[in-house]
Amino acid sequence: MLSPQPKRGNEGGDILGPQNPDRARQEPDIICPPITDSGKMPNMKWSYTDSHMRLEEGGWARETTVRELPTSTELAGVNMRLGPGVYRELHWHNESEWAYIIKGSCRITVLDVEGGCAIEDLEEGDLWYFPTGYPHGIQGTGKEGVEFLLVFDDGNFSEDSTFLLTDYMARTPKSVLAKNFRVSPKLFDSLSQKEKYIFQGTTPGSLEDDRKSVRPSRHRFVHRMLNQPPQLFSGGSVRITDSSNFPISKTTAAAHVTIKEGGLREMHWHPNADEWSFFLKGHARVTIFASSGKARTFNYMAGDVGIVPKNHAHYVENIGEGEVEMLEMFRASKFEDFSTEQWLAQTPGQIVAEHLNLEGNKREEFLKGLSKDKEPVKKGPRRNSF
């Protein structure tokens, strides 16, 4: 397949200098932007492939924060892998933690402020939420362990600033540890003097046995997102998880969206927060309208992160073969969006027609076709992939 060229009719020309053809094929609408793109807009895309990989015993982690993507100011993300029995060591954060299981399975533990402990087994499509400061741990289970996406409610988050149990214990005098836990100081001679972070552990036993050993929490920290009945539309499906059906998740709202081949996540905007998107599957095009005559188009593939600032109108179009699957996350307690079509359908027809310069048959065709009911994902004709 030939690489796209920066040519449109009589505008532009071919590239004579060095090129990265593979990269160009992933970015056709950057190389040759639609004629509707205009003005200057900061970058709204980052690929986890470009994130630095931290390799540890039995696992890895990589970040997308404001350092990698300066427009990612409200949320930050960490993609993490834990092999079977591998721990993400016991820790807590200044930020709240929202997570989605991409593949595999794991066991989580979390302590609430009332002294109750929740222990849960999770698998693909499940998510958890831990409020700021709640101590917790994660361990890979099953034959393949787990890979997941973590989302934190601060774009400046860093995995390196986590409060880790091993680091905490190593920075506390042994005499104090002995007093606190009512044991001999010698018991702590074998403490690790550096953080463990990700490390190999023993495969956990039964969930029932672990639960018997603790005082249970009365709070629900886990939500089975893919078990949630989807809203079905002509062009795909939507599942929304926010504080209305997952009450503890007060700072992060999310939607799981699928878009059929050729379909469209409709023209819309979010009034309460920036959108932080993660693409799980497929190839998509997004044009962001920023007011003042500014708009820019981006292409996204699996493993990419996208940012759309609050109140910036946009769509997500499936331009590849097969389905697009994506997560939309927001630093908000509720998922909110405005549909462009619903707005126009709920506005008197004459006002709409005069704004859009529609007359005669065009006026009638457009106004009759408007729906007062929101259809977040619309079907479309099949398109050729890039």
UniProtKB/TrEMBL annotation:
Gene Ontology MF term list: metal ion binding
Active-site residues, record numbering mapped to chain: 328 (proton donor)
Cofactor descriptive note: Binds 2 manganese ions per subunit.
One GO process term, biological-process aspect: oxalate metabolic process
Domain Cupin type-1: 56-189, 223-364
InterPro entries: Bicupin_oxalate_deCO2ase/Oxase, Cupin_1, GPI/OXD, RmlC-like_jellyroll, RmlC_Cupin_sf
Entry-linked Pfam families: Cupin_1
UniProt cross-references to SUPFAM superfamilies, sorted A to Z: RmlC-like cupins (SSF51182)
Cofactor: Mn(2+)
Binding site residues for Mn(2+) 1: 91, 93, 97, 136
Keywords, alphabetical: Manganese, Metal-binding
Residues covered by region (Disordered): 1-38, 367-386
Binding site for Mn(2+) 2: 268, 270, 275, 314
Skewed-composition ranges (Basic and acidic residues): 367-378
Name of the protein described by the UniProt record: Oxalate decarboxylase/oxidase
Organism: Dioszegia hungarica
Lineage of source species: Eukaryota, Fungi, Dikarya, Basidiomycota, Agaricomycotina
